[in-house]
Amino acid sequence: MANYVMRVGLIQAFDRETLKRKPIPPLGLAYLASYVGKYLGFTDINIHEDLDDLISGKPDLVGISAYTPFFGLAEEAARAVKAALSVPVIAGGIHITALPHTLPQVFDAAVLGEGEQTFLEVLELFQKTGRLPHEGLARIPGLVFWKGGQRVFTEPRPLIEPLDRIPFPKRDLLKWPRGTHYLFSSRGCPYSCAFCSPRLHWKKFRTFSAPYVVEEIKDLARRFDVEMVVFNDDLLIGNPGRMGELASLISGAGLPPIPFGGDVRANLVTPELCRLLAQMNFKVVSFGAESASERVLSRLKGGVTVLDNQRAVDLLFEQGIKIKVSFVILSPWEEYDDLMETIRFLFKNRGKLSQVSLLPLVPLPGTPVWQHAVEKGVVSEEMDWIKLNLDTFNPDEIVLHNFTRADMERFHREVFAMFSDAGMTDQYRALFGPEKE
């Protein structure tokens, strides 16, 4: 039988406000497009921002990826596609990987975990038959699909190794006008923070080779107006030896002086690493300090101490690198004095920190914090997922913390006085909003 001629539409589910901000481009979808192009020879694939645009393109198969807060929107999008086109719709992303047993019936199947090879085999099956027969899906590892009103799970998909087998993401399919571009030099993280789920999705920490990464940077510089490149890895410095190789290759690559940014982990920051980052023209480095209370920090992020966080700030600052630090507040283990320790830490380092984020603890599926929240009865698999959107999360609706209203009023009075006495009311408002009555 001749191959079925088809076109594929891909979309990342976001709410309108998030889409307006365009936090980062959906590189995961661009990796899918490049992978099936290289290994299946399939190129009739488009990545859409707008659902109406996707539907008007009349694809024969649709893939929808979603983070947890937007999975309800992904489900709505799948219903709209089914109503308009009656074509197969495949889910993907970290949320459905964490909760595959919750796959809604509007989706024909879901790709679990690393998606490139699994998605390729789904397309290959569809190319051959013009449909997705159950017996064919059952032979594809890494799927959950519907059959006779029941979810069927196939065997786990082996990870792609080496990662260099994956071609650069097909960025020409992305509507990305900005001068800041993003890339991944690794997948996964070797650590297990209480609130973070990359390890669930990627299984283990793997890296693209240093030559591969430098070639991708060169490709970006040739094809795009690049003002900055941000490494979007969960842990850029997970392999310290590779950082030295990257620095050496970048210096000899004949590249323009591109500024870089990326995330680190405080206990892995050393004087040598900071010198390498400065040599590579890293202008901004971010890390999650999480808490300045030793007791709370040990629950959120084992293996890191408050001293590690302070040393990382000092070493990066010495090299003239801008530092962005985030803290997780309102966790189940945090008391009033713990929270004030965090405020004193950021206040002490106010001249060294370029940006500070105080983020409420959000319980995401697949994490220890999610399990704690389930046991407490404040979340469930039937909840409205948009409530877990970090931008709009209400810690007084999904209550994991131990603070009373009186505690928070006292907190704001004390912190405002601290900042006001130092002539830093603008910085206070940036962190906490208008001063409280």
Topology:
Layout lengths: L7 E5 L3 H6 L5 H14 L4 E4 L2 H6 L4 E5 L5 H15 L3 E4 L1 H5 L10 E3 L4 H14 L4 H4 L5 E5 L2 E4 L26 E4 L2 E2 L10 H5 L3 E2 L2 H14 L4 E4 L8 H12 L8 E4 L7 H9 L2 E9 L3 H7 L5 H13 L3 E8 L6 H13 L6 E6 L7 H9 L28 H17 L3 H8 L5
Parallel strand pairs: 1-2, 1-3, 3-4, 4-5, 8-11, 11-12, 12-13, 13-14, 14-15
Antiparallel strand pairs: 5-6, 6-7, 9-10
Helix pairs in contact: 2-6, 9-10, 10-11, 14-16, 16-17
In short:
With 437 residues, the chain is an alpha/beta fold.
Describe this structure in words.
With 437 residues, this protein is of the alpha/beta class. The chain folds into two domains: 8-153, Rossmann fold (3-Layer(aba) Sandwich); 178-403, TIM Barrel. It has 17 helices and 15 strands. It has helices at 16-21, 27-40, 51-56, 71-85, 94-98, 116-129, 134-137, 198-202, 210-223, 240-251, 271-279, 294-300, 306-318, 336-348, 368-376, 405-421, 425-432, and strands at residues 8-12, 45-48, 61-65, 89-92, 109-111, 143-147, 150-153, 180-183, 186-187, 206-207, 228-231, 260-263, 282-290, 322-329, 355-360. The strands form three sheets. The protein has a seven-stranded mixed sheet, sandwiched between helices. The protein has a six-stranded parallel sheet with strand order 8-11-12-13-14-15, covered by helices on one side. Helix 4 links the parallel strand 3 (61-65) and strand 4. The longest helix is centred in the last third of the chain and has 17 residues, at 405-421. The model has no long low-confidence stretch (mean pLDDT 94).
